[in-house]
């Protein structure tokens, strides 16, 4: 497999299919249409939200070529063109935009944590580069587009069986190929639940903390981009206050590590924001909103 993507753990496999029920075509036709669509999207021929950074374009293009297939020049045949048009209706280009926006927020989150003095291993920068690139592959694109479209909707209640099939395949493949999700390490039991008896810190002692760090950065990126999107200020303490419901997916030792890291970030942020020069240095870091440590009362000064 391409160095940008992870293989599943031993005993787990990616879904293998010969056809796509949702599109009513052979799988190879879908792959051909998807390869062209991603190339067109990167080239600005379709959709919006394609990356501007050379490195980001190269990463996505490499995954498209090595995993989805070579982009064929000229006109697509009738079947592939039909699938291409159907994927536009399903909002696949919108999904590509959402995945790219999230990767950008991930990089912004990582760089902010570095700015306030967080210590990361050299491995983390590579994990950030590879993060969620599987969302551009044939294994995941359709399911994410079906469930979330262009990001203007939240989780859908899927009623069409072919859509359920796509989402189930996508979720399985995403967990199977992304170790920043604890589900990558926790096997499914016969009743369909995850076995969290052995934490990922024990299952992969060399990389467990790295993947958990990536997992925390992932949660913060999603929270900053979506949950706090309508706030007039980007409030760091609110950003770092992850809801307890998001910790249930971790084994106890893994959860303890994640919470300790978040507490560390809060302490570092408190110290960082005690200096005016630091406060000014992060203005505009995430977007156009003022970046503040906490919500202020009317009479309270900035520091």
Count of helix runs: 12
Query: What percent of residues adopt helix (DSSP H or I)?
Result: 40-55%
Low-confidence stretches: none
Instruction: Spell the H/E element sequence.
Output: EEHHHHHHHHHEHHHE
What would you say this structure looks like, in words?
- The chain has 303 residues and is mainly α.
- It has a domain at 19-178.
- The protein has 12 helices and 4 strands, in the order E-E-H-H-H-H-H-H-H-H-H-E-H-H-H-E.
- The chain has helices spanning 27-42, 54-68, 78-89, 92-115, 123-130, 141-148, 161-176, 200-203, 208-227, 236-240, 252-272, 276-281, and strands spanning 19-20, 25-26, 234-235, 291-292.
- The strands form 2 sheets. A two-stranded antiparallel sheet has the order 1-2.
- Helix 9 (208-227) crosses helix 11.
- The radius of gyration is 21 Å and the shape is globular.
- The N and C termini lie far apart (50 Å).
- The mean pLDDT is 94.
Topology:
Blueprint: E1 19-20, E2 25-26, H1 27-42, H2 54-68, H3 78-89, H4 92-115, H5 123-130, H6 141-148, H7 161-176, H8 200-203, H9 208-227, E3 234-235, H10 236-240, H11 252-272, H12 276-281, E4 291-292
Parallel strand pairs: 3-4
Antiparallel strand pairs: 1-2
Helix pairs in contact: 1-2, 1-3, 4-6, 4-9, 5-9, 6-7, 9-11
Short description:
The protein is mainly α.
Give a quick set of tags describing it:
303 residues, two-stranded antiparallel ribbon, two-stranded parallel ribbon, 51% helix
């Amino acid at each position: 497999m391409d160095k940008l993507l992870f293989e599943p753990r031993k005993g787990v496999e990616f879904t293998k299919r010969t056809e796509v029920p949702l599109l009513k075509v052979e799988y190879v036709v879908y792959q051909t249409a998807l390869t062209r669509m991603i190339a067109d999207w990167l080239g600005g021929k379709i959709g919006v939200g394609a990356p501007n950074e050379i490195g980001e374009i190269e990463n996505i293009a490499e995954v498209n070529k090595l995993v989805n297939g070579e982009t064929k020049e000229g006109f697509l045949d009738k079947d592939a063109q039909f699938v291409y048009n159907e994927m536009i209706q399903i909002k696949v280009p919108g999904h590509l935009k959402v995945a790219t926006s999230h990767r950008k927020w991930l990089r912004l989150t990582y760089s902010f944590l570095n700015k306030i003095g967080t210590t990361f291993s050299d491995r983390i920068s590579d994990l950030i580069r590879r993060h969620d690139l599987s969302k551009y592959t044939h294994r995941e694109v359709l399911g994410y587009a079906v469930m979330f479209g262009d990001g203007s909707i939240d989780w859908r209640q899927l009623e069409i069986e072919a859509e359920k099939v796509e989402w189930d395949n996508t979720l399985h493949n995403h967990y199977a190929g992304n170790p920043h999700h604890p589900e990558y390490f926790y096997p499914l039991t016969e009743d369909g639940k995850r076995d969290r008896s052995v934490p990922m810190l024990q299952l992969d002692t060399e990389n467990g903390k790295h993947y958990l760090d990536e997992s925390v950065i992932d949660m913060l990126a999603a929270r900053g981009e979506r949950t706090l999107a309508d706030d007039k200020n980007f409030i760091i303490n609110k950003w770092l206050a992850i809801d307890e419901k998001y910790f249930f997916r971790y084994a106890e030792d893994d959860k303890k590590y994640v919470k300790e890291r978040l507490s560390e970030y809060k302490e570092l942020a408190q110290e960082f924001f005690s200096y005016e020069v630091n406060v000014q240095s992060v203005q505009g870091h995430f977007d156009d909103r003022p970046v503040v440590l906490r919500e202020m009362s009317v009479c309270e000064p900035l520091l």
